[in-house]
Design goal:
single chain, alpha+beta, Ku70, Chain: A, Domain 2, 30% helix
């Protein structure tokens, strides 16, 4: 059973869904440990050998792979270096695929790709071609002594590159997608209406890291010598009556829309007065 990364509730409107989050993917690179060459014991920090009961010098340290619990296979640095991919200057696109067909689950780290002056025209051609076709390029690149699968896609008048997880790095969670709960057509209808009422265009600038803002505010207050009260965390209660929650959520959303519509003319009038 995979370990949960987070437990809590996902809510929309007045509907609360208890959730557990599992990492969907993780790097699958082989991990090495530092061991004492003499006795093949894994070292602690600082470089201390519990078998020899002493600190060891750097030239006594070896890289090793744990093939069984407590059993290590020592490798020479040169053996590893020979296997590492060459960090060449070429990233060749092997194929083009529909961008919409790539599951975001595979995306790892994002990069902006910026051309040199001499490459401005082919760069622009690739941007235009990918935008027109809805395609993205797949390639492999060697960085930091390992090989990455990358996807190149158009974004904001340029190209972005995302390193991707390989297929074997996508994890499986036994209980994911295996529920056999039945929902009524009326529940689906109300849930769809609630989703529609909350729908809008994605504007990332609306969102910010509230936690970091609170931490900075805390630091500022403490630097001034102010006392800070610790707030208790409120957790939403699980919803029992789904139909009732959906109906109340829709009614609440309608009230909010009406209030917003009532205040909108007043704001427009004030704006016109300021302009005049």
């Amino acid at each position: 059973m995979a370990a949960t990364a987070w437990r809590g509730y996902l809510s929309f409107g007045l509907v609360s869904i208890p959730l557990k989050l599992y990492p969907a993917a993780r790097g699958a690179s082989i991990q090495f440990h530092q061991v004492h060459k003499k006795c093949r014991t894994r070292l602690r920090r600082p470089l201390y050998c519990p078998t020899c009961q002493r600190l060891v010098e750097q030239d006594e340290v070896a890289k090793a792979y744990e093939y069984e619990k407590g059993q290590y296979l020592i490798l020479d640095d040169n053996e590893i270096k020979k296997l590492a991919p060459e960090t060449g200057g070429t990233m060749e696109i092997a194929e083009f695929v529909k961008l919409a067909g790539i599951d975001p689950l595979y995306f790892e780290t994002s990069y902006f790709a910026v051309p040199d002056k001499s490459g401005a025209k082919p760069y622009r051609l690739l941007v235009e071609a990918l935008e027109k076709t809805g395609m993205a390029g797949l390639a492999k690149v060697a960085m930091h002594r390992r090989e990455y699968l990358v996807v190149i896609r158009p974004h904001d008048n340029g190209l972005t590159l995302h390193t991707m997880y390989f297929h074997n790095e996508i994890r499986e969670v036994a209980e994911y997608g295996k529920d056999d709960v039945e929902v009524k057509p009326q529940e689906i209808k109300l849930a769809t209406e609630l989703v529609s009422s909350l729908s809008t265009d994605f504007k990332p600038e609306k969102y910010r890291d509230e936690y970091q803002a609170r931490v900075q505010a805390l630091l500022d207050r403490k630097l001034k010598g102010e006392k800070v009260a610790v707030a208790t965390e409120r957790k939403p209660a699980p919803v029992i009556d789904m139909m009732e929650a959906l109906k109340k959520s829709l009614a609440k959303r309608e009230r909010e829309k009406k209030r917003a519509a009532q205040h909108a003319p007043a704001r427009s009038t004030r704006m016109r007065r300021k302009a005049s």
